[in-house]
């Protein structure tokens, strides 16, 4: 397993953003839809109001769950969960470009969910950010 990176500029320099071809949708899971949605979810979060799942947009359509579609950009760097600044740098760069961003941190990678229509521009923004990292 690759070594985790902790230092902010090193995380940014090594982030190597990768665009997923699958489109995703954030949905609220109801008990009647739980088996089909949770089995296909790549992420879930329990809130006071209920469970949110990130599921393939196609499955959300089949379940009759409307909402915006998102592209997932995985930052391939093995960032330390206690590392500071990667999420802020990514979110700020995308915000400065007028692109919404929903960040999800997992054990091995961070994932930026951006509106599907802006995915290619978001990739350009993140590559420029990576190239500008001052080591």
From TrEMBL:
Lineage top rank: taxon: Bacteria
Sequence ranges assigned to domain CASTOR ACT in this UniProt record: 73-126
Domain named DUF2241: residues: 10-68
Protein name stated in the entry: ACT domain-containing protein
Origin species: Qipengyuania gaetbuli
